[in-house]
Amino acid sequence: MKRPTMHNIVLIRHGEAAKSPTESDPDLTEQGRRQATELAKDLQRQYPHGAGVRLISSPKARALQTARPVSNLWKKSILRSDDFIEIPSPENIPLAQRGAWIQEFLNSSWESMTSEQVLWRRRILQALIKQETDQGVHTTLIFCHFMVINTVVAAIRGDHRVTQFLADYTSQTHLSLKSGSGRLNIVRLGQERASRNQIQ
What we know:
Layout: E1 6-13, H1 30-46, E2 53-57, H2 61-74, E3 79-80, H3 98-105, H4 115-129, E4 139-144, H5 146-157, E5 172-178, E6 184-188
Parallel strand pairs: 1-4, 2-3, 2-4
Antiparallel strand pairs: 1-5, 5-6
Helix pairs in contact: 1-2
């Protein structure tokens, strides 16, 4: 009997973005672009020439721009997926107040999510368990956001706290998925940052 195949999934937080209370989709800062370039070099060391690696990104500019250096290096396309977009704000929270809402939400529970946010989380988890090994692909790199990473870690742990760890810019959180099991496991968390500022 053939043993189940293990698929590797890496959740990569985007680089530093030019946050603004009036900009819903900011670009990377100069520092963020440098971080993306260094990330590409590190990924090249881990997965030479991108052999067997699939690239997926949130459609947000900061995630796509973080993925672009390694995409260019490997000459691989990036699959844009709305399944890995950042958490939606409650309807009554204007863009200018999103930062304050995020900071407050960090200290709360995933049980306090709105119905829209529950759907957001469900879509992330469903998309992850579909990342099966096929056509020579053994690893999926997903360029996404702080809240995406933390909700996945919380779901795997069965822990309701919103903040599981302070994923730093371009940190890599490694998961594994046994083919056909629909079960995700945490291999190791990504690098942490010291502050909760600039979380988005």
